[in-house]
Write a structure and sequence with these properties.
Layout (H helix, E strand, L loop, with lengths): L9 E5 L3 E2 L3 E2 H13 L8 E5 L11 E4 L5 E4 L6 H16 L18 E5 L8
Parallel strand pairs: 1-4
Antiparallel strand pairs: 1-5, 2-3, 5-6, 6-7
């Protein structure tokens, strides 16, 4: 069942991920909420939990999205403050971008190597 949420930049975190020896999606969701709550510069980035993003081999996963922007799925995180901070710092740069592309030099170290997919917004392709 679909549940409507506000449009805007959001990090959708899989709450059912289970990574062997690394933790689970619920722990990553809790860390994302805690980091966001403690940093007013992140209030423009929503954090939503969702059961199963179907990226089980790459747990723990998040989907970064915004209307009219390229979307990304990132995974293989160890839940905790460091991962949450890196994800949300990237999300802040993503929010400031015109089309969702963030220059590699601006990527937080903690997201490098964690990208799984990028998808164009409806009615677009990426060239």
């Amino acid at each position: 069942m679909l549940t409507p949420v506000d449009d805007g930049v959001s990090v959708v975190v899989c709450t059912t991920c289970r990574a062997p020896d690394a933790g689970d999606g619920a722990a990553l969701a809790a860390a994302l909420h805690a980091v966001r709550a403690g940093d007013p510069t992140l209030y423009g980035v929503a954090v939503h939990g969702m059961a199963c993003l179907f990226a089980c081999r790459d747990a723990c996963t998040v989907h970064l999205r915004a209307p009219g922007k390229i979307a990304y799925v990132l995974g293989r995180f160890v839940p905790g403050t460091a991962a949450a901070r890196a994800i949300l710092d990237y999300a802040r740069a993503y929010a400031a971008s015109e089309d969702g592309e963030v220059a590699f030099a601006d990527w937080p170290e903690g997201v490098k190597g964690h990208f799984i997919t990028r998808t164009p917004p409806p009615s677009f392709i990426v060239e």
